[in-house]
């Protein structure tokens, strides 16, 4: 079983690359942000617990995230492996994942490196498809028809947590709680860093090389 973890600050391109990488590798794409948004729109208890944290750009408490994630990856479609996007976001989450997987499954962590200056611009102009989660940008990657997804025709929207105020809070939360995971995975010898400040295709090829080339993790 292969488990890939995509690390990087909000706006680094994790969502975009995760969809492509999962498809190329035949792995299931599991995004905890998407799972929370699904729970929110259905009004489930998990969604209700997560809402306040998400609206403020804060991380949802580990116990809520872990229950939701472990339930998702226990489903049969994940039995050959999966690609995690937006998880883990704290050392405690990474430790819980490692404990669950045991020593026979090695996690490979791919870290997208993007300078802070590029992140705010990317996030505040981002458009997300309500149905297939494809990502566009008002300036750099507009859809062919305004507010409609090129791929599935569904409505595009701006996430409420992509407002400038909430983006700042998410970046602070990332530096304090998630960035330490880079050193944590490096210490385990399973970290691969990729320059994410290039075209989508270039980043994708670099990620593919790091994840699947012979001798890679
Ligand atoms: P994302 O779509 O990955 O940017 O996630 C959106 C929001 O969902 C985050 O700002 C957090 O509030 C919450 N969230 C997603 N994944 C996690 C996680 N692994 N741990 C804690 N909160 C999370």
Architecture blueprint of SSEs:
Blueprint lengths: L1 E6 L6 H12 L2 E4 H11 L2 H11 L6 H12 L7 E5 L5 H11 L5 E7 L2 H9 L1 E4 L5 E3 L18 E2 L6 H15 L1 H8 L3 E5 L4 H13 L5
Parallel strand pairs: 1-3, 1-4, 2-3, 4-8
Antiparallel strand pairs: 5-6, 5-7
The protein binds adenosine monophosphate (AMP).
The site of adenosine monophosphate (AMP) has 18 residues, from helix 2 and helix 3.
What is the gist of this entry?
By secondary structure, the chain is α/β, with parallel strands linked by helices. The chain is built from nine helices and eight strands.
Structure notes:
By secondary structure, the chain is of the alpha/beta class. The protein is 47% helix and 17% strand. The protein is built from 9 helices and 8 strands. The protein has helices at residues 14-25, 32-42, 45-55, 62-73, 91-101, 116-124, 164-178, 180-187, 200-212; strands spanning 2-7, 28-31, 81-85, 107-113, 126-129, 135-137, 156-157, 191-195. It has a 5-stranded parallel beta sheet with strand order 2-3-1-4-8, with helices on both faces. The longest helix is centred in the C-terminal third of the chain and has 15 residues, at 164-178. The chain is globular. The mean pLDDT is 95. Bound molecules: adenosine monophosphate. Adenosine monophosphate is lined by residues 10, 32-33, 36, 53-54, 57-60, 65, 86-89, 93, 161, 170.
Shape: globular
What does the main sheet amount to?
A: 5 strands, parallel
Cα-to-Cα separation, first versus last residue: 13 Å
> What percentage of amino acids are in beta strands?
15-25%
The total beta strand count reads 8
Bound ions, cofactors and other small molecules, one mention each: adenosine monophosphate
Quickly give the structural class.
alpha/beta
Order of strands across the main sheet: 2-3-1-4-8
The tally of helices reads 9
**Helix share of residues?**
40-55%
Radius of gyration: 17 Å
Strand and helix order: EHEHHHEHEHEEEHHEH
The overall pLDDT, averaged over residues, is 95
Note poorly predicted spans: none
């Amino acid at each position: 079983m292969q488990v890939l973890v995509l690390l990087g600050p909000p706006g680094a391109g994790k969502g975009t690359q995760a969809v492509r990488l999962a498809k190329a590798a035949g792995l299931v794409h599991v995004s905890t942000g998407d799972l929370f948004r699904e729970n929110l729109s259905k009004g489930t208890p998990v969604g209700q617990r997560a809402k306040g944290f998400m609206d403020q750009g804060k991380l949802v408490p580990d116990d809520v995230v872990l229950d939701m994630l472990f339930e998702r990856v226990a489903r049969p479609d994940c039995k050959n492996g999966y690609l995690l996007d937006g998880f883990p976001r704290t050392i405690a989450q990474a430790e819980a994942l490692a404990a669950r997987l045991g020593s026979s499954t090695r996690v490979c962590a791919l870290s997208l490196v993007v300078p802070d200056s590029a992140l705010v611009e990317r996030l505040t102009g981002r458009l997300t498809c309500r149905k297939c989660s494809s990502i566009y940008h008002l300036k750099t990657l507009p859809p062919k028809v305004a507010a409609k997804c090129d791929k599935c025709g569904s409505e595009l929207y701006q996430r409420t947590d992509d407002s400038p105020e909430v983006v700042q809070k998410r970046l602070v939360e990332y530096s304090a709680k998630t960035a330490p995971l880079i050193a944590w995975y490096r210490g385990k010898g399973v970290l691969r860093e990729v320059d994410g400040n290039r075209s989508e295709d270039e980043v994708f090829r670099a990620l593919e090389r790091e994840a699947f080339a012979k001798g890679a993790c």
